[in-house]
Design a protein that fits this description.
Elements: H1 2-8, H2 30-40, H3 62-70
């Protein structure tokens, strides 16, 4: 679904970050760490998620996560 959305909306170089079996309660898992590193180095400009709980279970944490990744 997200690949199709990305394609239809001009997003190129799509990469999937998947950590099946890891909890969204924290950011201490491999794919989230890789996503953060790729954001920080400018490799990622847009993040698409099917459900915000894929990033965090606490919506109040999301703005801090975004600021820490995109605006260092």
């Amino acid at each position: 679904m997200l690949r199709k959305y990305a394609e239809e909306n001009g997003h190129e170089n799509v990469k999937v970050y998947s950590d099946n079996g890891f909890s969204g309660l924290n950011y201490d898992h491999p794919a989230i760490k890789q996503l953060q590193a790729d954001i920080e180095t400018g490799r990622v400009g847009t993040v698409l998620v099917k459900n915000i709980s894929c990033i965090t279970r606490n919506d109040l944490d999301l703005p801090d996560w975004v600021l820490n990744c995109f605006y260092k």
